[in-house]
User: Fold this.
Amino acid sequence: MIIKRNKVNARKRRHRRVRGKIIGTSLKPRLCVFRSLKHIYAQVIDDTCGNTIASASSIEKDFNFNGGNKIGSKELGKIIADRILKKGIKKVIFDRSGYLYHGRVKEVAEGAREMGLDF
Assistant:
């Protein structure tokens, strides 16, 4: 089987490699980030039972920012952190999904840290 080497497949390979090392638990779930060109998504996942604890995305109706830039990404980080903190979770493992820790992915992390989330 021939696999084309391009940016998407390279990111998926990196993501599989990282996911082999990090596992979210009920005490310390995994904060997973996905970005597209126009939007950004974040979920908090408990891998031991396979449940999504909380999620947020830039396509929600009450999200008033652009998900394709850093300002919107930082606000998304604040929203997801607020939702997690309301459920009593203060520590998470950050899963960058194979993306570089740069730009919009970094802003999600910084927005979550500003709200008091620890990772």
